[in-house]
Amino acid sequence: MRHISLGLLASAGFLTLLFTQQADAGLITFGSGVNQFDMEFVEIGDAGNLPDATGAPNPAGAVPYIYNMGKFEVSRDMITKANRLGSLGITMFDMSPYGGNGVDRPATGVNWNQAARFVNWLNTSEGYAPAYKFALQPGDGGYNANANIELWTSADTLDYDASNPFRSLRANYVLPSVDEWYKAAYYDPLSDTYFDYPNGSDLPPTAVASGTTANTAVYNQTVSQGPADIMDAGGLSPFGIMALGGNVYEWEETSFDLSNSAVSSARGVRGGSWYASSVYLSSSNRFDVSPGFGSDSIGFRVASLSSTATVPEPGSLVVWSAICVGGLCYRRRRVRK
């Protein structure tokens, strides 16, 4: 576990941001017995990075805390086992016409509401608070796995965040927000640069059917082929995450209009699929999809937070800084020759 301490200081046109964040990366085991499965998380550092002003939405990618992103998309096996343990009622599409229903294929057909229920189960199975508020939980009369969430409100004292009424402040596992997803895909912390594609380049990766070779992704394939297994779905992003471009589109937590103010509003979806062209893998492409809609080409992955940002004690500060003008801080994409 890494501990980063942060706070907020300002002086004469110079802004220094500091937060406290704990983040647990590595292999996490869920479930038990024959229903046990592992999820691998990668730390997304460089807390307080500035946003990209060239993609969609604009700006995007600034995250003021350390967090973790699932290295792989959620698999069919993970959903099957969570369904058994949590009686979640999550349905997946029959992918027989599209390469088959192998246990390590991505969990396609899971709509946003169902993905949120899976994330809630990850939290509660590990002793954390649920991320998303549902009126009815498994076991309640009239339970519907496809039901929309409710907004957290100021009455939910421990959970409510006015800037994001979708997500509980106490949650550890979440669906990645638009900025968390964008940063993990398109930002390179070594060069402090945003790229157009998740291979750390402004040129698209090489299209492949499967494999783990660097600078490849699963796209431009026939529809009937279907997606690759989640651990065999192309090269990695600069942070070391697979299939943020290609294989299957992925849900964002954030509503398409960025407000997170209406439970039935369309959610952001991005990343491209195994049969998409390269343009759909780029930072400029984001789509709106109803939270109750499932598709054979849409899956998802999970992020983890470990704790919310807090103000540190004096003497425990690790400082990063950025020049800000008019209260706005932006990172322009560097020109590469």
Characterization of this structure:
The protein is built from three helices and 18 strands. It is α+β, with helices and mostly antiparallel strands and 337 residues long. The strands form six sheets. A five-stranded antiparallel beta sheet has the order 5-6-7-17-8. A four-stranded mixed beta sheet has the order 15-14-13-16, with no helix packed on it. The longest helix is centred in the middle third of the chain and has 14 residues.
Helix content: 10-25%
Element-by-element helix/strand order: EEEEEEEHHEHEEEEEEEEEE
Q: Provide the β-strand percentage band.
A: 15-25%
Structural class, judged by helices and strands? alpha+beta
Q: Report Rg.
A: 19 Å
Low-confidence stretches: 1-23, 307-337
Key descriptive features of the protein:
337 residues; alpha+beta; four-stranded mixed sheet; 3 helices; 18 strands; 10% helix; disordered N terminus
Note the topology:
Blueprint: E1 2-4, E2 8-11, E3 14-17, E4 21-23, E5 26-30, E6 37-44, E7 67-70, H1 76-86, H2 112-125, E8 173-174, H3 178-186, E9 187-188, E10 193-194, E11 206-207, E12 216-217, E13 249-255, E14 267-270, E15 287-289, E16 298-299, E17 303-304, E18 320-323
In short:
This protein is an alpha+beta fold. It has helices at 76-86, 112-125, 178-186; strands at 2-4, 8-11, 14-17, 21-23, 26-30, 37-44, 67-70, 173-174, 187-188, 193-194, 206-207, 216-217, 249-255, 267-270, 287-289, 298-299, 303-304, 320-323. A hairpin with a 4-residue loop joins strand 9 (187-188) and strand 10 (193-194).
